[in-house]
Amino acid sequence: MEQAAILDAAGWTGPNGDVWAQEWRRTDRSFAALSAELDRTIAHVMGEGPVAVADIGCGAGGTALAAADANRHAQVTGIDISAALIAVARERAGANANIRFIAAPVEQAIGAAGPFDLIVSRHGVMFFADPVDAFTRLRAGTRPGGRLVFSCFRAPADNVWARETMAAVGEAPPAADGYAPGPFAFADADFVRGLLAQAGWVQVEARPVDFLYRAGSGEDPVADAVGFFSRIGPAARALKMADPAERPAIVAAVRALCAARLSDGHVDFPAAAWIWSARIPA
Q1: Is residue 268 domain-resident?
Q2: What are phi and psi of 59, to 5 degrees?
Q3: Taking burial as the number of CB atoms within 10 A of a residue's CB, which of 100, 173, 238, 262 is the most buried?
């Protein structure tokens, strides 16, 4: 495992996962417009009959819960490496009988938890140390003819929320060459298509989806957005790394950026994702 991947996994089992667990309401809100489209796609693929579904990198459980609600005959399993996020997901699920959550690395858990008819994910697939191996394991945990549906970000240049926050805090966009786990690791459609083919998936298709990334709302949407970006994303990284004396200037730059995006009581940024679908041979 590469050092970057080791650090990334450690972050999700520690501080990163903890922050996302604390911020699940605002992260779900930021993805709400995309989630609506992804959930419709998943519901269409599931159909109405019995089906075993795995939500990989399930986070706080939003996509898994939507799938379980859409088809009461489905048995949905959410898997995430973060115990803190899984605790939130379990609390949200309550006594729902057709959903369960597992705190474990997806690559390790998928075989024992399956087999599945459908693998889904909302932005949970871009953090594998070895993505070809991971998607090969996902295929092995899927029944013949099984399906795959997941979303991921397109390039930073197409995601104004990322491009502008990176510029505001002086962060360079991630390198386009080579694979490194991270939010934009699957931005290159040719790369993703190739790795899925290597992993044995067929009928691979990508659909671009543009959506509004909602960063702030409520009584003071700008303050809400600044608070959100101070916890998650490029501004949060910059604040963590900066000297204390530099932090007020970073916060001021983010506040100006968010104020410029305030409209109709919300702070929204254009965002861009892929929704991928594939299957394995019957």
Answers
A1: no
A2: 60, -135
A3: 238
